[in-house]
Amino acid sequence: MSEEIVGLGTWYDMMAKKVIEREQSLKRDMGRIRTEMGLGASGFPHIGSLGDASRSYAVTLALKNMDFNSELVAFCDDKDGLRKVPAGLPADIAKSLEKYLGYSVSTIPDPFGCHESYGKHMSSLLLEALDKCGIEYKHYSAKEVYEKGLLLDEVRTILTNAKRVGEIVKEEVGQETYTEVLPYFAVCEKCGHLYTTRAYRFDPKTDKVTYKCEGLEIRGKLIAGCGHEGEVDIKTGQGKLTWKSEFAARWKALDIRFEAYGKDIADSVRVNDRICREVLNYEPPSHAKYEMFLDKGGKKISKSAGNVFTPQVWFNYGSPQSLLLLMLKRFVGTRSLDVSDIPSYMNELDGLEDVYFGKKQVGEKEAFRLKGLYQYCYVMKPPAKPSIHVPYNLMAFLVKMAPKEAVNDYVAEKLQSYGYLQKGQAIDAGLQKRIEYALNWTRDFEEIKETNVELSVEERKAILELVTALQTEDNPDNIQNAIFNAAKDNGIKPGAFFRVLYQILMGAPQGPRLGPYVLAMGKQNVLDALQRVLSKAST
Fold first, then answer.
1. pLDDT at 306 over 50
2. What's the rounded mean pLDDT across residues 274-297?
3. Among 262, 271, 403, 428, which residue's Cα sits nearest to residue 333?
4. Are 464 and 475 in the same domain?
5. Are 421 and 432 in contact (CB under 8 A)?
């Protein structure tokens, strides 16, 4: 390779190099380079929430691979207030949360009854997903951080310079709110609300903020204040900075050097960068902006909307490594996503593994990058040997056909006949997990849709010819020959045509002998799938 390759050849290695060069130019201590991710606690964590952690952790791993000490900080925003009752909750739980709008999520009782607070319950779901993916982190709770005074110096400096903070906010986003009030929410000592208070004076001699509980309109709904006027000592932790300044405070206090962020909070990041530099005299961390995940209807997947797609849902049908592949394979660009994409990522991970172990050949530079990506999917702890690869669609079909009392025996027998297992070879732990994923899939969904494949004119003609032949053919050898003939009649190499068919029917470039498989799968099912692909190709 004539071109210089950084680290393992991925975007994360390039980002780590930039972080190192920037930190060295700033002459900051290189003894520990911290990355950070924010951990929401106001609703169910969605797939995108894991993106913050996985991307920042990949940069941490890249830094470690370059012999720098690095750690990921997972900062839980459990001091934030509840702005909206998340969709998708049982009606009784949703109703019980209505009265807590405007309260800090760390003070709301857990309606599920298993954690000390609502905020702790929601944040635990994402922490659980991080653990399952093998992501290591240093956890900070905003509630505890404020109570222990870890941000005290930064809070004091920001409130002392509140006028300048307000000017920065106005200059960057045109919002004049903080030219009139402090960038701070006090917890009302009378009613307990957080977001209903307006802080308007800070006394640096006593560290006290004066506030009035006036009420606030959140998402078109008025949350009434109780009218109480009082003071809160910032050392008690009974209040918090607003988002327009809190990032800056924690970046300095925790010495953060890198944080990725979604474009939906780009304005807040820009404001906090300036506050960091101009008020706190700390150079903000390096950043990388990423696009959001959309559902297939084009709406942003979010905690409070009804389209929550959680990591826990993914783990029902796919491996943690396949989820990390989704997160890490591409950094820029908006992607649409739903549960139906999981099989394709499982198959794609198998393809990466083939490249990593030299079973699949690609260009030298591409191989280096893909091998690096594979290692990041396994958080730098890749397996010592390849697993047995069975296309997801095939496994789902087999478990669907298997007798309920003998699934493993049936699957093993079929995989032996298809050549995936040697005669007498048992189901290992990796295959057992694939069987479990497929069983969950067939329990919850009717089928896996055929993969969308771009067809050439010749491939379309060949599939039309094959469809005609299949109408009257029920012999597996004759079906196999019909596939060969359809390819040759249309000037396509048989191997290439088989790959197209495997991709359509299994979502993978190879599979079992197609003649017998077509009959086992059900000839009409195959015909329907091919007809749907032809129909899409003609539109």
1. no
2. 86
3. 262
4. yes
5. no
CA dihedral 366, 372, 377, 381 (to 10 degrees): 150
How many whole angstroms separate alpha carbon 129 and alpha carbon 76? 14
Residues 264 and 353 in one domain: no
Domain closes at, from 292, 325, 353: 292
Q: For residue 168, is it within any domain?
A: no
What pLDDT shows up at residue 420? 92
| DSSP state for residue 122 in the 8-state scheme | H
Q: Do 53 and 145 reside in the same domain of the chain?
A: yes
Cβ distance 281 to 19 under 8 Å? no
> Is 227 part of any domain?
yes
pLDDT at 393 over 50: yes
Whether the CB-CB separation of 238 and 188 falls below 8 Å is answered with no
Which helix or strand (DSSP H or E) is residue 376 part of?
helix 364-377
Q: 166 to each of 158, 198, 245, 381, how far by Cα in Å?
A: 10, 14, 10, 47
Q: Is 397 found in the same domain as 352? A: no
Give the C-alpha distances (Å, rounded to integers) separating 437 from 62, 103, 400: 31, 39, 12
Same domain for 273 and 134, yes or no, is: yes
Alpha-carbon gap, residue 121 to 42, rounded angstroms = 10
Q: Look up the pTM and report it.
A: 0.88
CA 413 to chain centre: 37
Least confident of 57-66, 405-414, 497-506: 497-506
Give residue 406's domain range. 392-444
Residues in Cβ contact with 99 at an 8 Å cutoff, skipping those fewer than 6 apart: none
The domain tally of the chain equals 5
